[in-house]
């Protein structure tokens, strides 16, 4: 079976899952069997079919499992959004279409991702500019300054794009510096450390991440940036010491900020003991925990939990974005939620497999970094929902409502597939005796 | 680099493993506890889909029921309280917005049908049972009499059957209309006299002279005193340099212990308390259940602990340094609930055996299957039957010729004790009466408290107690299992 046929075999059931989810949500809403917004569902399915077709033509050797996994997550997310508010699903379908266009554009116009390495500093600078622009021109929503208003009442989250640009930059930068970072040249405080000038970027990054917490007032984004940075540093050098050191520094900085910034302090407090103030600071968390408890083992099914009041307001604030996983856990129960988490683990497995199969350092770092972004982001927000880590305002990749997030994640998937296609193509050519390009 | 990639993958996958465990904690292990929390709107919202059980009084009046209605093709149930404000604090409410209180909260599991071993399986199948009815010991006739007598005043009445602990009435005034909770909760909450508070179980009042019943039982229990023990009252008894006077600065001269209770002579009880000492008196209070939450089928938050308070905290009964002379006459920061004092009166009536009070005598499904049957249960023996009967005779004398004559019932012997706790403001006395009837074969024990009155326990509380007891005796035996 060819790779693309395999992809199609997995894609069809994944798309059917989304369509069935939409129909189930609609049926629960009307209390009779209904097809639901099948036009929306079929439209989104078509986007994935087109993506599949583009891969057939332009990246035939790319990984066959990534797109079906995306489709399953997007489909469940769409069905969840529909059951929260049908209008949200309509919007999300448009974002998915946009994401599909970006996906295809990346596949078509960037057959070789290695051009990115050449522009790593420009890309890195762009990432910084995007973040600075957000700090300066940003609008505060729900207490976090992550959005920039564009025309027509729409908002974009530049941080989402900056995240990818940063991974590209780091892949290039670390490929260049990995040797000097990996070899310790001095011994201080009982630790083998490389020269200070090579270590300096880590410290700068640490400072920047903490500054981002204060300025963007968003712990999640900072944690994500720093976490991905550490992950890539580890990939590049293979030294767990950096990760430990980095996490220690971040924890120390966070403790300081906890004490210094009242808003963050409140967040931590409501994480540690949400039941102290059920109607106030702990409200969102407690309502979410009630939703999880209500879902139980099997859950009542798509659209059947009581997530939304009769008036149509979600019981949990930010249900469609930060708390979409609570909706999944409530409707589909523990079993369904484990299923969704497994999809993310499989997605990571494919991403890291692509990284492993890649044939040069830059590609490995890029694929590993991109996968780490998606995996870590899912971990941070799900961890917040289940109270493993403090709650933060990052989106659940492919599932949360929001254009920036959807488009960027589709872009990430496209990049991974380009890398995958490239490495297998190289392999095929090497076997045939053609020099790799 | 592939080794690092593998390690990173394993680390992140392990992280997701932690998420799975943590989620399992919330969805499976902690779920039951979270579901039962009073402020969980999901559980209550789910209950809109449940045909919740009825709350039915001993005289078969429906106090709460679920009414079906259709909305968007779905069948929902809403709560309706046919008796409006009757026993509102005890019945309680259950709404998605305001949470649940009273019996609606305490018996939620049964009313909502999520009881028994099947409940876990139902949880897995996402099915709900029909709720079961709860049948009360409370009788609306006694309850209605008590509320009518309290109306326009602040106060509480508790009436129990001494031999079983069955609660016949729990009135707390002012009240509120339970049906108004869903329509206009804000205005109920805004009222200054706290109608939501169940004064009978959750209101704390200084017991005043009603506490002398406890002191008397304790005194006779020591063997040092008897009803005929004589005392000489000079109108004042001094402890630690601070004088204790009789009410109205009266002087009684030579008298015995029965006279002391009949006329509520402070100096004599102060003397007894002083001689008995704080530890001995404290041990006696332990037997009466002071400083310990009363076990009754109401939410813990709605039942206050009776005993000595300091800075809002309950103190242990046995304290070496306590002023036992003042405790003996119901002072020294003693704060008690009407429920607790009704239990004291009930214990005297029941030959010294204090019964655990209960409101629900049985839980029964709509098909008539009895799910739970409450049997009378003894809390503790507070005195021997002989001593209890002696104290009972002394309390009869209080009603026949002492401060409690207003509680007297024609043709019946009533035993009782008045109390008037003064606050310094002559218009803000807390008037008490505790007692039982008929004295020979007690069927009902009561505690009455009237807040902020210029009158005394004898003039304000005793007549209320008399009327309530008359009604309780006129309704005949309480249905249910035969009393033993």
Written account of the structure:
The complex is a heterodimer of chains A (437) and B (484). With 437 residues, chain A is mainly alpha-helical. Chain A contains 15 helices and five strands. Helix content of chain A is 71%, strand content 4%. In chain A, strand 2 and strand 3 form a beta hairpin. In chain A, helix 9 runs antiparallel to helix 14. The two termini of chain A are 27 Å apart. Chain B has a domain of 320 residues: Beta-lactamase. In chain B, 37% of the residues lie in helices and 22% in strands. In chain B, the strands form seven sheets. A six-stranded mixed sheet of chain B has the order 3-2-1-6-17-18, with no helix packed on it. A five-stranded antiparallel sheet of chain B has the order 8-7-22-21-20. A three-stranded antiparallel sheet of chain B has the order 14-13-15, with no helix packed on it. In chain B, helix 8 packs antiparallel against helix 19, helix 12 packs across helix 14 and helix 12 packs across helix 18. At the A-B interface, helix 9, helix 12, helix 13 and helix 14 of A face helix 1, helix 2 and helix 3 of B.
Summarize the structure.
The complex is a heterodimer of chains A (437) and B (484). Chain A has 15 helices and 5 strands.
* N→C terminal distance of chain A: 27 Å
Count of β-strands of chain A: 5
| Tally of helical segments of chain A | 15
Question: How would you sum up the global shape of chain A?
Answer: globular
Low-pLDDT stretches of chain A = none
Class per helix and strand makeup of chain B: alpha+beta
Please tell me the overall pLDDT of chain B.
87
Structural class of chain A: mainly alpha
How do the strands of the widest beta sheet of chain B line up side by side?
Answer: 3-2-1-6-17-18
Give the fraction of residues assigned to helices of chain A.
over 70%
Distance between the termini of chain B: 84 Å
């Amino acid at each position: 079976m060819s790779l693309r046929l395999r992809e199609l075999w997995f894609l069809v059931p994944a798309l059917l899952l989304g369509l069935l989810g939409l129909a189930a949500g609609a049926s629960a809403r009307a209390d009779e069997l209904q097809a639901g917004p099948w036009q929306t569902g079929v439209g989104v399915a078509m986007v994935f079919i087109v993506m599949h077709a583009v891969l057939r033509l332009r990246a035939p050797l790319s990984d066959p499992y990534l797109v079906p996994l995306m489709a399953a997550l997007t489909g469940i997310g769409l069905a969840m959004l529909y059951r929260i508010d049908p209008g949200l699903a309509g919007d999300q379908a448009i974002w998915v279409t946009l994401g599909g266009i970006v996906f295809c554009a990346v596949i078509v116009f960037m057959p070789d991702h290695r051009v990115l390495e050449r522009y790593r500093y420009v890309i890195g600078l762009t990432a910084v500019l995007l973040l600075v622009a957000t700090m300066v021109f940003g609008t505060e929503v729900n207490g976090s300054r992550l959005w920039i208003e564009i025309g027509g009442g729409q908002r974009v989250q530049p941080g989402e794009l900056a995240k990818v640009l940063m991974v590209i930059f780091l892949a290039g930068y670390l490929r260049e510096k990995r040797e000097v970072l990996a070899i310790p040249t001095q011994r201080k405080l009982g630790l083998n450390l490389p020269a200070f000038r090579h270590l300096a970027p880590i410290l700068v990054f640490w400072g920047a991440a903490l500054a981002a917490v204060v300025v963007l007032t968003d712990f999640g984004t900072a944690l994500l940036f720093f976490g991905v940075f550490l992950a890539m540093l580890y990939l590049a050098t293979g030294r767990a010491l950096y990760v430990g050191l980095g996490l220690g520094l971040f924890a120390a900085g966070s403790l300081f900020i906890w004490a210094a910034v009242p808003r963050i302090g409140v967040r931590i407090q409501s994480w540690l003991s949400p039941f102290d103030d059920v109607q106030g600071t702990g409200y969102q968390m407690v309502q979410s925990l009630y939703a999880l408890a209500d879902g139980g083992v099997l859950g009542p099914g798509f659209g059947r939990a009581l997530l939304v009041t009769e008036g149509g307001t979600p019981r949990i604030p930010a249900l469609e974005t930060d708390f979409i996983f609570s909706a999944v856990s409530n409707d589909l129960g523990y079993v369904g939620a484990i299923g969704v988490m497994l999809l993310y683990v499989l997605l990571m497995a494919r991403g890291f497999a692509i990284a492993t199969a890649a044939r040069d350092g830059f590609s490995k770092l890029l694929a590993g970094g991109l996968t780490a972004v998606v995996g870590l982001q899912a971990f941070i927000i799900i961890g917040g929902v289940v109270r493993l880590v403090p709650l933060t305002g990052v989106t659940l990749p492919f599932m949360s409502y929001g254009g920036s997030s959807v488009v960027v994640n589709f872009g990430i998937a496209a990049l991974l597939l380009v890398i995958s296609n490239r490495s297998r193509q190289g392999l095929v050519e090497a076997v045939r005796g053609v020099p790799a390009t | 680099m592939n080794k690092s990639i593998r390690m990173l993958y394993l680390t992140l996958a392990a992280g997701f493993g932690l998420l799975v465990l943590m989620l399992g904690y919330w969805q499976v292990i902690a779920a039951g506890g979270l579901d039962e929390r009073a402020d969980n709107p999901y559980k209550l919202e789910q209950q809109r889909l449940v045909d919740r059980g009825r709350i039915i009084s001993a005289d078969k009046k429906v106090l709460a029921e679920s009414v079906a209605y259709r909305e968007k093709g779905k069948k929902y149930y809403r709560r309706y309280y046919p008796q409006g404000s009757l026993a509102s604090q005890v019945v309680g409410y259950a709404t998605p917005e305001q949470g649940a209180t009273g019996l609606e909260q305490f018996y939620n599991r049964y009313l909502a049908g999520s009881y028994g071993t099947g409940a876990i399986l139902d949880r897995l199948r996402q099915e709900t049972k029909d709720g079961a009815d709860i049948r009360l010991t409370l009788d609306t006739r006694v309850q209605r009499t008590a509320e009518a007598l309290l109306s326009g005043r602040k106060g509480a009445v508790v009436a129990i059957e001494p031999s079983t602990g069955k609660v016949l009435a729990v009135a707390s005034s002012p009240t509120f209309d339970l049906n108004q909770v869903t329509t206009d909760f804000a205005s109920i909450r805004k009222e200054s006299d706290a109608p939501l508070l169940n004064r009978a179980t959750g209101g704390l009042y200084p017991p005043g002279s009603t506490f002398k019943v406890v002191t008397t039982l304790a005194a006779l229990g020591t063997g040092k005193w008897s009803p005929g023990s004589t005392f000489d009252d000079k109108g004042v008894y001094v402890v630690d340099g601070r004088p204790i006077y009789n009410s109205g600065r009266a002087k009684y001269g030579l008298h015995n212990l029965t006279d002391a209770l009949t006329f509520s002579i402070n100096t004599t009880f102060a003397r007894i308390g002083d001689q008995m000492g704080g530890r001995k008196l404290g041990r006696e209070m332990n037997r009466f259940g002071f400083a310990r939450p009363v076990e009754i089928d109401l939410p813990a938050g709605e039942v206050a602990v009776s005993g000595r308070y300091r800075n809002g905290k309950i103190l242990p009964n046995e304290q070496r340094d306590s002023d036992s002379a003042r405790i003996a006459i119901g002072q020294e920061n003693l704060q008690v609930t009407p429920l607790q004092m009704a239990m004291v009166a009930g214990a005297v009536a029941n030959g010294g055996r204090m019964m655990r009070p209960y409101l629900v005598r049985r839980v029964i499904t709509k098909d008539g299957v009895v799910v739970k049957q409450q049997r009378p249960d003894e809390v503790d023996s507070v005195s021997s039957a002989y001593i209890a009967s002696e104290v009972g005779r002394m309390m009869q004398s209080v009603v026949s010729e002492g401060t409690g004559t207003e509680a007297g019932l024609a043709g019946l012997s009533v035993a009782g004790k008045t109390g008037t706790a003064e606050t310094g403001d002559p218009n803000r006395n807390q008037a008490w009466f505790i007692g039982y009837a008929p004295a020979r074969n007690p069927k009902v024990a009561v505690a009455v408290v009237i807040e902020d009155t210029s009158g005394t326990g004898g003039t304000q509380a005793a007549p209320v107690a008399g009327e309530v007891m008359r009604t309780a005796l006129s309704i005949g035996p309480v249905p249910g299992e035969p009393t033993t």
